[in-house]
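Q: I'm building a small set of examples for a reading group on sequence design. Run inverse folding on the following structure and report the sequence directly after it, with nothing in between.
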C-alpha cells in the first residue's frame, strides 16, 4: 500500500498544573476514538502515528474503563503526541475515499511541574524555553483550571485561582526572557488561548457561563496580567485573545471503584476547537491589520490550514481548496444560524463532499455545545 502523504498539520497546546487531568484528558480523547460507538458514527478515524505512544494511551483508557485505574503522570516530561486524522472508507457510500493524503493533529502536553517549580539551573531554564518554543506553531492553547481545587477552596476560590494564574504568568515571563533575548516578537504564535475547566463532572451545577463569571470575578486582574505577558510574545499583539473562550472538560465520570468513560464532557470538542476556533478570528484579524505583512499572511495561511484540516482533501485539487476557503471566509452559511448549517451539512453528505461535511459538522458540534452551555465562544 502506498504510504499517505502529510497534507496539513494542526497543533494544540494544553497547559495545566500537575494533577489537573492532562494525561487523563489525552488518554480519554484517544481511547474514546477507538471505541466502536465512535467509529460507527464518525466520518473520520484517529490513529497515533507513534504506535507505542498510542498503545500507552489506549492502555490508560482501558485501565480506567475496565479496572477504574487512573494513569500515572509523566513528571517533568514534555511530550508531543501526533495523531493522523483521515477519512474512514465506510464514510463514503460511492466512489473512492479522498483520504490518500493524511492530516495530523499535534498535541503538546506541557509538564505541570514546570509551572509550579522554579528552574534550578540556567540550563534547566533554557530547556524549558526550548520546549516552549516547540509549541509556538500551535493555533490554539488550552489553560486548564482544576475543578477539584475549586471544590477544595469553595467559597474562597480566589486562593487557588490567584496562585494558578500567578504560576502561569511567572512561568511565561521567565520563558519569554530566555526565548526572546533580543525582544524580537514572533509572527507565528498561539493566538487563541482558551480556559478549560478540567474534571467538570465534579461541579455538575456549573455551566460554562458561570465558569467564565467565576474567573472574571475572582481573578480578572490576574487574567489581564497573563494576557499582557503572552501577548508580548506575538508580533501584532492585537491579533491575540486570552480569556474570551471557555470550555467545560470532563474525561469521564469518576465514582468510588468505577470510572464511567462513556460520560464525557467536552472531550469530543477538542478537534472542532482546534479546527474552527481560529478560522474566522484569523480572517478578521488579518483584515484588520492595516499594514498587512507577514503576520497577516501567516493568519490567512493558518485559516486555510483550518479549513483543510480533516479534509481527506487531495491538495493537488487547488481549485477545490480555494472554493471551500472562499465560502468560509465570506461565511455565508455560518451567518444564517444552525438550521442553515445543518441543511448545508446534509447536502454535503449527499454529494459525498467529505471536507465540507466535516467542517460543517464541527460547526454544528460547537453550536450544540454553546446551546448546552458547555462552550462559550468569543463574539469578536
Amino acid at each position: 500500500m502506498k504510504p499517505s502523504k502529510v497534507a496539513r498539520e494542526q497543533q494544540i497546546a494544553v497547559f495545566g498544573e500537575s494533577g489537573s487531568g492532562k494525561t487523563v484528558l489525552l488518554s480519554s480523547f484517544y481511547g474514546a476514538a477507538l471505541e466502536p460507538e465512535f467509529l460507527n458514527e464518525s466520518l473520520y478515524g484517529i490513529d497515533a502515528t507513534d504506535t507505542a505512544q498510542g498503545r500507552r494511551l489506549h492502555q490508560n483508557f482501558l485501565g480506567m474503563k475496565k479496572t477504574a485505574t487512573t494513569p500515572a503522570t509523566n513528571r517533568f516530561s514534555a511530550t508531543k503526541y501526533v495523531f493522523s486524522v483521515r477519512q474512514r472508507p465506510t464514510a463514503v457510500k460511492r466512489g473512492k475515499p479522498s483520504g490518500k493524503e493524511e492530516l495530523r493533529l499535534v498535541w503538546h502536553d506541557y509538564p505541570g511541574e514546570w509551572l509550579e517549580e522554579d528552574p534550578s539551573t540556567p540550563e534547566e531554564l533554557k530547556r524549558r524555553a526550548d520546549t516552549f518554543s516547540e509549541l509556538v506553531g500551535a493555533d490554539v492553547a488550552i489553560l486548564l483550571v482544576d475543578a477539584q481545587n475549586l471544590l477544595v477552596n469553595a467559597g474562597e476560590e480566589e486562593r487557588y485561582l490567584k496562585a494558578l494564574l500567578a504560576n502561569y504568568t511567572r512561568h511565561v515571563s521567565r520563558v519569554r526572557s530566555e526565548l526572546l533575548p533580543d525582544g524580537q516578537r514572533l509572527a507565528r504564535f498561539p493566538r487563541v488561548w482558551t480556559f478549560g475547566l478540567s474534571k467538570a463532572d465534579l461541579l455538575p451545577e456549573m455551566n460554562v457561563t458561570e465558569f467564565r463569571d467565576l474567573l472574571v470575578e475572582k481573578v480578572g486582574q490576574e487574567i489581564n496580567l497573563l494576557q499582557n505577558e503572552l501577548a508580548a510574545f506575538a508580533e501584532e499583539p492585537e491579533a491575540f485573545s486570552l480569556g474570551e473562550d471557555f470550555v467545560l472538560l470532563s474525561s469521564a465520570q469518576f465514582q468510588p471503584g468505577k470510572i464511567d468513560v462513556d460520560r464525557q464532557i467536552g472531550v469530543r470538542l477538542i478537534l472542532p476547537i482546534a479546527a474552527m476556533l481560529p478560522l474566522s478570528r484569523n480572517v478578521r484579524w488579518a483584515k484588520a491589520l492595516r499594514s498587512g505583512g507577514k503576520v497577516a499572511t501567516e493568519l490567512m495561511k493558518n485559516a486555510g490550514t483550518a479549513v483543510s484540516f480533516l479534509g481527506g482533501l487531495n491538495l493537488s485539487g487547488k481549485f477545490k481548496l480555494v472554493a471551500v476557503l472562499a465560502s468560509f471566509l465570506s461565511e455565508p452559511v455560518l451567518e444564517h444560524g444552525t438550521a442553515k448549517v445543518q441543511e448545508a451539512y446534509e447536502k454535503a453528505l449527499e454529494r459525498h463532499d467529505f471536507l465540507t461535511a466535516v467542517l460543517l459538522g464541527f460547526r454544528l458540534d460547537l453550536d450544540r455545545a454553546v446551546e448546552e452551555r458547555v462552550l462559550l465562544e468569543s463574539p469578536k
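The two ends are 46 Å apart (CA to CA).
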